[in-house]
Amino acid sequence: MSSTASNSAHHSLVSTPATSLSSSPTNPTISHLANRAQDQRQKPKVLFFGDLSHTKFDERIREIAEVHTLPRVGYQEMVPLIKRKVEEEGEFVAFGGLFLITHDFPNKWDAGLLGPLAPACKLYVGPGAGYDKVDIDWISSSGAMYANSPLAVGRRTADGALALILGAMRGITPQDLSVRAGKWRAPVKTLDWHTATIGIIGLGSIGTRVATLLSAIGASHIIYHSRRPSSSPEARQSSPPWGYCRTLDELYEKADVIVLTCPLTRETKGLICRESLGKMKDGVVLVNVARGPVVKEDDLVEALESGKVMRAALDVFENEPEVHPGLMKNPNVTLSPHVAPAPDSMGAPMNGEVVENIIRFLETGIPMTPVNLDQLKEKGFVVGQGKVAS
């Protein structure tokens, strides 16, 4: 914090519950940590899996924070490393993960892994948009924020989704297999994206970009279902406007193509199943770039074999990296090994968002893309404004 800033700027960023705002040596609030850091003229400490994001934010974070790193290893190897780091270095105010899909990385973020960092750590930031492997309830109960890094990976996932959608609508995979079998041209029915009704389930950042890209190439019948109508400028300004379906049943009834871009939650796990597939049009095309468990693969295989689903393009699978044998052998299924965002080149922009989230938190008290502010408020924690950086 600058020397001219007053102590009143050190509001609690995420404090103990409002009914018990006092702090103790075993339960410090972020404001006490910030004041202590200022008094001792020390930078706040942050901890990362991995070393650098290879973006401009690496230099900035080291200007305002004391940065510590751990190697990229799996869950069991990481547990003692975090514990030892806290014992040796003391408290950390923020924690982030920097990795690529080819690196080892803990398969879950929970109390067993992150417990030694609590309650002093007030921000955890994970790479990527999804956070189904993160124990948000535990992080919230510790009075900390969780932030994801959805922007770069979201844009790139949507780009990959567009390729899968167009390929599935044109039947590229069965035509490719036909040529390879020496049959030149297979009798494949195609769909025209200019006239087909394309339904998107989950109009968050990824779904919105998918719809925007489709609109740009002439798709004129885009419908979607989310918890509420989208307020994004893209949804409001598109011509023609995207149609909001109040229920999934309405979308199932109308859509020629269904694209899954929703998060994996208790509500969406197994969403695409025998019952929901039965409500869809005969010959529907299904594309999944969300999470594998959103689809019950046994039921999808059955629908493909009956012709209820004409074709499917899947970037994610129910039991990754295992793929259902019924999907493997079906020529009407395009299989993509969770690479829609082109992970070989997405590391720097995605990890840069992780670091930028922590910088924003240190400078303002709130990260760019917090996930659990509502849960914190429901639990009685105070989420305020204030600087942590020296």
TrEMBL record:
Domain D-isomer specific 2-hydroxyacid dehydrogenase NAD-binding span(s) in chain numbering: 162-340
Segments for region (Disordered): 1-38
Biased composition range(s): Polar residues: 1-10
Family: Belongs to the D-isomer specific 2-hydroxyacid dehydrogenase family.
GO CC terms: cytosol
Protein name (Swiss-Prot/TrEMBL): Oxidoreductase
Keywords: NAD, Oxidoreductase
Organism: Kwoniella heveanensis BCC8398
PANTHER family in the record: 2-HYDROXYACID DEHYDROGENASE C1773.17C-RELATED, 2-HYDROXYACID DEHYDROGENASE-RELATED
